[in-house]
């Protein structure tokens, strides 16, 4: 009788350990995916300067972050700029035809 209880306890412990091991990568992957999504599509930090002239559908963006940044301009109801790498102190302009300025995001 004791042998069966120990065996059952051992099987239960192994199943619990296996279940925890199998569940951990999925939870970890979900957390990593969420973190990656946030990092790739969040609003650009304040060190990225934006000069927007909405009635001319124009924005000038300057990277003042001290390092290269991957950025794009999001246009609500229009075409976004491509995601490109901009070096420190590099600036660029983006004009759009349809839509309105939304924000600058990391990508």
From TrEMBL:
> What keywords were assigned to this record?
Signal
The record's InterPro entries line, in alphabetical order, gives: A-amylase_inhib_sf
Q: Does the keyword Signal apply?
A: yes
Task: Name any one GO molecular function.
Answer: alpha-amylase inhibitor activity
Top-level taxon of origin: Bacteria
Gene3D superfamilies the UniProt entry points to: Alpha-amylase inhibitor
Renumbered to this chain, the signal peptide range is 1-29
Q: What is this protein called?
A: Uncharacterized protein
């Amino acid at each position: 009788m004791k042998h069966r209880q120990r065996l059952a306890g051992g099987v239960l412990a192994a199943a619990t350990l296996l279940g925890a091991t199998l569940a951990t990568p999925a939870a970890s992957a979900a957390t990593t995916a969420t973190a990656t999504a946030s990092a790739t599509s969040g609003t650009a930090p304040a060190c990225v300067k934006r000069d927007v002239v909405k009635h001319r559908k124009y924005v000038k963006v300057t990277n003042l972050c001290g390092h290269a940044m991957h950025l794009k301009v999001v246009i609500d109801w229009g075409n976004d700029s491509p995601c490109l790498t901009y070096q420190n102190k590099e600036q660029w302009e983006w004009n759009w035809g349809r839509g309105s300025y939304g924000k600058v995001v990391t990508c």
